[in-house]
């Protein structure tokens, strides 16, 4: 069973459209994250949720809205897609959000291409 | 701001050789972690070293940490073609378990 699963794996869409990426973890972790990886492989944190509560929002545009219906799910909705949103989006989870020695478990990524 | 910086950006070696990757960071840390990313896949945790540790081993992996120089190195011994991947260091400067990643080192191991 995949520990952190995200769908879809590929997403090709036109500028201006709205799209969602779903993420689920079956590890029983409290904390989930969204990371964005650009074409140069730089991985940047976008959001962090702990037990359905938003913990971190790293100056991401309002067009990006995460939603966590329960602690096992963290979805990402993107409005009015722009060319610069093209990237690979990774969902991740960790057992807890505070304290040291937390390691992340990543999904396999969603490659978003905005045309 | 970006915390970790790996070097080299790319490394090409033959099977059986050792591969060494370095990571430098800017602020004090609780721990430093190394992750591997195979092409088209998510990152996989390899090893964690705490700020009060100097060296750690896991199988063919050896990690060192020098907090005075704010640097770490990852050594993969007796490399295999399957080790071909990108390797990232990550730190948690805030202590809030929000890891900050470097840009990674792309390792190519040729048979």
Number of strands of chain A: 11
As an assembly, this protein is heterodimer
Note the main sheet of chain B: 6 strands, mixed
Mean pLDDT of chain B: 91
Task: Output the radius of gyration of chain A.
Answer: 13 Å
Q: Structural class, from secondary structure content of chain B?
A: mainly beta
3D structure, described in words:
The complex is a heterodimer of chains A (115) and B (111). Chain A is mostly beta strands. Chain A contains no helices and eleven strands. In chain A, strands 2, 4, 5, 6, 9, 10 and 11 form a seven-stranded mixed β-sheet that branches. Chain A has a four-stranded antiparallel β-sheet with strand order 1-3-8-7, with no helix packed on it. In chain A, strand 5 (43-50) and strand 6 form a beta hairpin. Chain B is built from no helices and eleven strands. In chain B, strands 2, 4, 5, 9, 10 and 11 form a six-stranded mixed β-sheet that branches. The A-B interface holds A 4, 31, 33, 35, 40-45, 48, 55-56, 90, 92, 94, 96-109 and B 2, 30-31, 33, 35, 37, 40-45, 48, 50, 86, 88, 90, 92, 95-101, 103-104, 106.
